[in-house]
Amino acid sequence: MQPFELQSKINRTVSYHGSEYLFFSGTAYLGMGNVPEFEKLIMDGISKYGISHGLSRINNVRLHIYGQFETYFAEKAGAEKAIVWSSGFLAGVAAVQFLSKQAEHVFVAPDTHPAILPEGINPDPFLDHTTWSEYCLRKAIELPSSKILILANAVDPLKPTIHHFEWIKNLPDKHDYTLLIDDSHAFGVLGNGLFGTYSQWRHLPVRLLVSGSLNKGLSLPAGIILGDSITIDEITNTNIFRSSSPPGPGYLQAFLQAKHLYQQQQQKLVQNVSLFKNLIADMACFHFKESYPVFSFSDQSWPEKLSQSGILVSSFPYPNPTDPLTNRIVVSAAHYPEDLIHLHKVLSGLG
Fold first, then answer.
1. What is the CA radius of gyration of the chain?
2. Under a CB-based contact definition with an 8 Å cutoff, are residues 316 and 295 in contact?
3. Domains in the chain, please, with CATH?
4. Which among 301, 266, 264, 294 has a CA at the least distance from the CA of 280?
5. Which positions fall inside the Aminotransferase class I/classII large domain (predicted)?
6. Which of 153, 154, 272, 344 has the most crowded Cβ, counting Cβ within 10 A?
7. How many distinct helices (H) and strands (E) make up the chain?
8. Closest CA to 222 of 230, 207, 211, 231
9. C-alpha dihedral over 288, 290, 291, 294, to 10 degrees?
């Protein structure tokens, strides 16, 4: 299936070569980019602060909105402190670069995002989390007292699989553990409201940090690191923070003013996921988890057949370019109930 090179905005539908397609792909789970009131708030923020802010955060001229956003997000997430970055990838790189220098051993989960992978470490993408966690336990028992860094995603959005970390309680207490979780596909969808999984795992016997992109569920072109005050303050003293520019401030103001809009979209997403799960209840070909809005399937012929019926789904080879296609239907808050009913009707006709 050839890529669709679009020249217009992606909504619940997309236009391509004069035809309109229902769009069931992407990562804009809450569909905030298609909420006119949110777009207006962003425009208001850009009008107030400008289109970007190219100054370092350590400059003697600073914008209050960054600290205001960080304080609010950290409080709601259940963390002591936060740092906002221009992207989730940069946030992850900054976090893992800082933490890996302190670690004597690193345990890396199979599907860990490249943003939080130390250089030279390539986990086995085909290993399952249960087998990996059992390996971590055995290794921790064997090792002498050490500083151990554990790296993982909150969710694998491709299979999909939601990861749990209660097993960390079983690790021997002779070590000092740090856990870094990438929440890119959790913000807005899993955990505490809009704010990801930090509060879910802060009870674990580890130093906990969460990093990730805000540009998926929350539709903010920015990234964030959440953690304890001491660690966050130390990261703000690193060269990677001191020499980088922050995200556009107008988006952060829009977020702070759009709480009711995010809540509205979350409710729509829950309703849409519930509807689609009910529609496909008799179809055993889908793999999905809890209320996560991703539904994977293995039939390699479906993406092309669905495209011919005016429906675009997510389909690309992963993790390597020569691997079979990873195929998914992504439901968002932007979809109408009739979109999901039509999708189910087409799927039912595929056999």
1. 21
2. no
3. 36-259 (3.40.640.10)
4. 294
5. 149-343
6. 154
7. 11, 13
8. 211
9. -20
> Mutual orientation of helices 259-279 and 36-49 as an angle, nearest 10°?
150
Q: How far apart are CA 117 and CA 120, in angstroms?
A: 8
CA 109 distance to own-chain centroid: 16
**Residue 298 three-state SS:** coil
Q: How far apart are CA 189 and CA 74, in angstroms?
A: 17
Residue with tokens 């293995």: 298
pTM over 0.85: yes
* Residue among 221, 225, 159 at smallest CA distance from 196: 225
Burial of 321 (0-12, 13-18, 19+ CB in 10 A): exposed
Structure tokens at 217: 């569920």
Could you tell me the two tokens for 101?
């220098």
What does the H/E/C string look like for 200-267? HHCCCCCEEEEEEECCCCCCCCCEEEEECHHHHHHHHCCHHHHCCCCCCHHHHHHHHHCHHHHHHHHH
Task: Answer positive or negative: Cα dihedral of 306, 307, 313, 319.
Answer: positive
